[in-house]
């Protein structure tokens, strides 16, 4: 278990003073930091077809980016090279543990754990990210500079898959050592170059934009055949110009569209479904001999049983009147509000003991959901 200390700040103070506001150097955020993964294992992941990886090199200031999967690592030279692997929390349960200390930020905002391995001088160059990120230093050292958002900073493509930003003044300029952490809000330019072979872990967040939200909501209406209400104008009066679509009509069209979003049940069903979609296809191993509800009841009686949640699982809930809409990996489950304590165990924790949830023994609806999750391999013991 990793224990996070944010300098002398409480989590509330960090959120109030820094989150989405300004960058922060957290010295020894993790004391006695032990890397959860070896560089060789990271390289192994980068050989897999289904895992997103890149190698970036910057020999003599010539920036090149290569996309995985990789058959060998000749591009990862002794100097000026970086291997980056996305969403490692899906594939490596020990590395996934690094997300846990950051779950004081609502889980649906967490995107993934990206891990990089850089050789001296290696990095991805000066750039901006659209999202908040905590960069944790593992083995080795890396020299980081972080600036403040500046709308005048010009972005340019070093090559077709490497967007960089021009040089910027730094407000943080430091060499990170194992266990140090940088918090970087969206839009803050930053660059980091390895001083010695270095592992870095980026806990990345996500913030959907209007375009993606609206297009996903529209897809949901299409899939569920909802949103059928049509424009109507029974009050129409004769007008001098027939060419104009007037302000009242424009407003009525807008209200018609907003009415679709304002249907709370439709909206939250979509939101749960959409926000709990995993980043990648899950690496699921469904049970060959599925449990019955009685089997799960028996498991809950066994105090030695510990249930674990599969890495990469997205689990959130929303309260809708006296119901709870639980959403796990894109599937919704409706529960009574009285199940709130049990539901939060499945959304706020990545493991539970049988004792934690054995109050559900006679709760048919909860048991049904939990049995489904066990049978699909989303939770396992
Ligand atoms: C890296 O680890 O090289 C990149 C992390 C980042 O700048 O977001
Ligand atoms: Co970055």
TrEMBL record:
Name of this protein: Cupin domain-containing protein
Instruction: Give the matching Gene3D superfamilies.
Output: 50S ribosomal protein L16 arginine hydroxylase, Chain A, Domain 2, Cupin
| Classification via SMART domains | JmjC
Coiled coil feature spans: none
**Cross-referenced InterPro entries, in alphabetical order?**
JmjC_dom, NO66-like, ROXA-like_wH
JmjC domain: residues covered: 94-222
Q: Identify the Pfam families for this entry.
A: JmjC_2, WHD_ROXA
Instruction: Write down the species.
Output: Pseudoalteromonas lipolytica
Q: Which domain of life is it from?
A: Bacteria
- Write the record's keywords in alphabetical order, separated by commas: Dioxygenase, Iron, Metal-binding, Oxidoreductase
């Amino acid at each position: 278990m990793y224990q996070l200390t944010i300098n002398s700040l409480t989590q509330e103070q960090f959120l109030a003073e820094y989150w989405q506001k300004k960058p922060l150097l957290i010295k020894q955020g993790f004391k006695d930091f032990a890397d959860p993964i070896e560089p060789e294992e990271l390289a192994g992941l980068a050989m897999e077809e289904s895992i997103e990886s890149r190698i970036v090199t910057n020999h003599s200031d010539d920036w090149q980016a290569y996309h995985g999967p990789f058959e060998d690592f000749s591009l990862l030279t002794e100097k000026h090279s970086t291997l980056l692997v996305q969403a490692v929390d899906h594939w490596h349960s020990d590395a996934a543990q690094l997300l846990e200390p950051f779950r004081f930020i609502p889980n649906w905002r967490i995107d993934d754990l990206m891990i990089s391995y850089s050789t001296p001088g290696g990095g991805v160059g000066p750039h901006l990210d659209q999202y908040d990120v905590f960069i944790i230093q593992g083995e080795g050292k890396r020299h980081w500079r972080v600036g403040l958002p500046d709308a005048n900073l010009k972005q340019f493509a070093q090559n077709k898959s490497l967007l960089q930003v021009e040089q910027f003044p730094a407000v943080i300029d430091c060499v990170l050592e194992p266990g140090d952490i940088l918090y970087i809000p969206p839009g803050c330019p930053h660059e980091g170059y390895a001083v010695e072979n270095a592992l870095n872990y980026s806990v990345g967040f996500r913030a959907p934009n209007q375009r993606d939200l609206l297009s996903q909501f529209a897809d949901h209406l299409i899939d569920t055949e909802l949103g059928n209400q049509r424009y109507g104008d029974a009050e129409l009066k004769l007008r001098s110009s027939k060419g104009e679509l007037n302000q009242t009509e424009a407003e009525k069209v807008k209200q018609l569209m907003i009415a679709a979003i304002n249907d709370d049940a439709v909206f939250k069903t979509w939101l749960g479904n959409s926000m709990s979609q995993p980043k990648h296809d899950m690496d699921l191993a469904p049970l060959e001999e599925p449990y019955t509800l009685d089997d799960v009841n028996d498991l809950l009686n066994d105090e030695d049983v510990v249930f674990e949640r599969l890495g990469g699982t997205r689990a959130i809930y929303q309260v809708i009147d006296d119901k709870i809409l639980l959403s796990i990996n894109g599937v919704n489950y409706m529960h009574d509000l009285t199940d709130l304590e049990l539901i939060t165990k499945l959304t706020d924790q990545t493991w539970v003991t049988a004792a934690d949830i054995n109050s559900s023994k006679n709760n048919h609806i909860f048991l049904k959901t939990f049995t489904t999750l066990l049978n699909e391999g989303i939770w396992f013991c």
